[in-house]
Amino acid sequence: MNRIAIFAHYDKNNLIQDYVVYYLSELKKCAEKIIFVSDSDVLPEELKKIENLVYHSIIGRHEEYDFGSYKRGFLYAKENELLKDCEELIFANDSCYAPLYPFEDMFSEMSVKPLDFWGATFSDSGIKNADESIECSRFNHLQSYFVVFKPQVFNSEIFYNFITSVKREKTKEEIVIKYEMGMTHLLEENGYKYDFYCKLCKIVPSAQTAAYISLVKNDKSPFLKREITLYRAAESFYPVFVKDLIKKYTKYDYNFIKNDIINNARYLTVLEHIKFGFKSYRRFFYRRKRKERLICFLGKWYKY
User: Fold this and answer.
1) Is 170 helix (H, G, I), strand (E, B) or coil?
2) What does R_g of the chain's alpha carbons equal in angstroms?
């Protein structure tokens, strides 16, 4: 199948880390062409790492997050007629370690379904700004770190108008609400059908972080969110056994994760721990059902 992938990248040190190189090398097995778009001033010597993996690179700060990179990659593909014979357009970003399992398994299952677009994971959880000026809770949407579109979507005027409307926003929360949540809502509202690969998302909100153990062990998710290992927050107070999880159930090289932790781990302040811990307590014990809490804390050890 002819696929084009737009890969969104950001690195505070203007580097292309090893986990990204591996991600691209595996994605290349499923996508005929990869357009690499970085919201960083990537050093020329770094680009040499991926010169045999990507079709084209777009480099430079734009501060529009992943959707700003998706926009730039999409416009390049369209202007250069790369979408003419494209059967699936992939939006992917570097916020995950991947693939823990071969991408081919996921594509084999999802690409044959009668869908207009699909993603790896799904969430019905929303977001609220720190100053509570923006609120959007319990809003169904695909996670934007990996989404696949069929021609009826990416060739439509609706999609074109949406992606070209992406601009720099004041906060990351606004990016999530307007573009990640907004994209799913817009396409669904216009009659496009979607689904997601990991079934646990039907049970646990934000399963990609709240129940990542089950997601990897039982749903064979190819993705592990970087925030699980990089951000030491009280919000992640359920057991973190990433190293054992990766080594026991996957063939992924844990050194990719280890090196990323060394370079990018962020330790939150005491106040941030308290804040996130309180929010998590309410979410786990007041909003979630007992079955959901068991999955989050223990990982899946029974059939859901």
Assistant:
1) coil
2) 19
Nearest-5° angle of CA 241, CA 244, CA 246? 100
Distance CA 7, CA 23 (A): 10
Do 37 and 7 contact (CB within 8 A), yes or no?
yes
8 A C-beta contact, residue 35 and residue 16: no
| Residue 139 main-chain phi, psi, to 5 deg | -115, 115
Q: Give the start-to-end residue ranges of the domains of the chain.
A: 3-198, 200-298
CB 135 within 8 A of CB 128: yes
Pinpoint the alpha helices (H) of 132-203.
151-154, 157-164, 172-175, 182-189
Cis amide leading into 99 (omega within 30): yes
Structure tokens at 13: 């040190």
* Interval 227-258: pLDDT, tens: 888 875 433 443 357 889 999 999 999 999 98
CA–CA separation, 113 and 195 (whole Å): 9
Residue located via tokens 């059939």: 303
Tokens 């859901």 -> residue: 304
Say which DSSP state 35 is in: E
More confident residue, 200 or 210: 200
The pTM of the full predicted model, rounded to 2 decimals, is 0.86
Fold of 3-198: Spore Coat Polysaccharide Biosynthesis Protein SpsA; Chain A (3.90.550)
Tell how far CA 37 is from the center of its chain.
15
